[in-house]
Amino acid sequence: MRPENEKNKPVIEASTTSKKDQPSESSQEALDNTWAELTQDWQSQPYEKVDVQALLSQTKKRTFWAKFLLALNILATVCFIVVVIVMWLSNSQDKTTMTYLIFAAVGSVIFVYYEIKIRLIAWQQVSASPDMAVKNAIKGIESSINYIRLTKFSCWFLVPAGSWYVIEMAKQNDKSMWLGLIIMNVSVGVMWGITHLFHRKRKAELAKLKNTA
After folding, report:
1. Domain range for residue 98?
2. What is the pLDDT of residues 118-151, one digit of tens each?
3. For the chain, what is the domain count?
4. Does residue 46 lie within any of the structural domains?
5. 62, 140 in Cβ contact below 8 A?
6. How far apart, in whole angstroms, are the C-alpha atoms of residue 199 and residue 142?
7. Cut 0.90: pTM above it
């Protein structure tokens, strides 16, 4: 017969092993709390479903208007150049108007150059795949923002050039320059204000899309 202490030994070891394998009550409670915090954090994350078809339609429409504006700006540039050439060939004595139109033609050429550069960068990265709808929209909005920045920047050149032209023409015709200056500067200010509103709107749209991408 085995001694009594040897009979009890396996029982004691099994009991000890069982206690080591089970996590303590405090550890289990900490784990439950951590899991609850992670679940709550996941549920609180912003999530918005993107209407892919609506996004594709919007991107297509904006691309059309971007091309339309580009065509108009190219046409305006060509018109400026043609008028300058005609005035020069006809030996026009209206030097003030000719100088202003030369400035407008050069400025328009520079504007269109950067506009084409901005648009091509976006259009070359556009994919026809519906899976790329969000990325295409992001590229389109970024292109629109860059175009708006270019337009706003050009306003700072229109103010001094336009003011100079109004003042010179008023002197030639012996008329008051103030009405012309007010109309010209208010027009440029309105154009800048409208583009600034579009700038803020596009930036908000871009931030929203990047959160869903």
Report:
1. 52-212
2. 999 888 876 666 667 888 889 899 999 999 999 9
3. 1
4. no
5. yes
6. 10
7. no
